[in-house]
Amino acid sequence: MQDYFLSIKSLKVLYEQKGETVTALDSVNLSLNQGKRGVIIGPSGCGKSTLISVLAGLNSNYSGEVLIDGRPPTIGGETAMILQDFGLLPWKTVWDNVVLGLKLRKRTTAEINVAVATLLEKLGLCSLAKRYPAQLSGGQRQRVAIARALVLEPRLLLMDEPFSSLDALTREEIQDFLLEIWEETRLTILLITHNIEEAVFLGQKIFIMSSGPGHIQQEVENGLAGASHLRGKVQFLEMCSSLRSFLRGRYSDAATA
Ligand SMILES: Nc1ncnc2c1ncn2[C@@H]1O[C@H](COP(=O)(O)OP(=O)(O)OP(=O)(O)O)[C@@H](O)[C@H]1O
């Protein structure tokens, strides 16, 4: 039997609220090989963020088996997470924002300086090092958020709708940027999106979720992922169109269930 880097079996998550039990996830099975990019797409409320929070070690109140490289999730460790609002501290400069995680890990100042300078250089962010988040564009902020995650040298990068507040062109630029980083690091990435084009462009494996309660409805192996030259071309648009049809079908099933 194959050992996956990311392996989820029969995951169930319940929330208790005001005496009511909400089944956010039930019978979720998901697997992803090391160094692959997975994308989760599905309707609002189907449990995408809940799934990511379990993987990030932020929610340990679940049943089933969740393993990252054979071990249950823990906060920090070898997993980094990037959120929709970038999660930057507004009162700290770009440099200080990126440094933060390493300081928490008690690295020496010399180690920190080398690691951060090297990474900012690699990501083309050196000229922004002294600026504050409010002095950056949305795309620049997201690059800094990516730098802050990468400086910790994670083996798994979790992204919860990371590009949703960006305009269409900036969004494409940062998708390309993420792809370049992946080419270099071969990180395992699991990204949540509501955007079909983004799912097709980035996801080597696309997990389509359904609600009521949340589960993985379908897994799609996507041979078009990462092919910048195919963006907007017939093949790419056809893939988006079939994913859209599938999602529409599922959405209406969920609505009438
Ligand atoms: N802390 C909580 N307490 C109670 N119910 C919750 C809590 N967090 C989430 N839920 C419920 O669990 C279900 C899944 O929520 P979740 O946020 O994971 O979905 P999602 O797919 O990420 O949604 P969206 O796409 O809108 O962000 C929803 O029904 C939601 O109302």
Automatic annotation (TrEMBL):
Organism, scientific name: Pelotomaculum schinkii
Entries under CDD domains matching the protein: ABC_NrtD_SsuB_transporters (cd03293)
UniProt keywords, alphabetically: ATP-binding, Nucleotide-binding, Transport
PROSITE patterns reported in the protein's UniProt record: ABC_TRANSPORTER_1, ABC_TRANSPORTER_2
UniProt xrefs under InterPro entries: AAA+_ATPase, ABC_transporter-like_ATP-bd, ABC_transporter-like_CS, ABC_transporter_ATP-bind, P-loop_NTPase
GO MF annotation, one: ATP hydrolysis activity
Origin: domain of life: Bacteria
Matches recorded under SUPFAM superfamilies: P-loop containing nucleoside triphosphate hydrolases
Any Pfam family matching the protein: ABC_tran
Statement: the UniProt record of this protein carries the keyword RNA-binding: no
Protein name: Taurine import ATP-binding protein TauB
Record's keyword annotation contains Endoplasmic reticulum: no
ABC transporter domain sequence ranges: 8-236
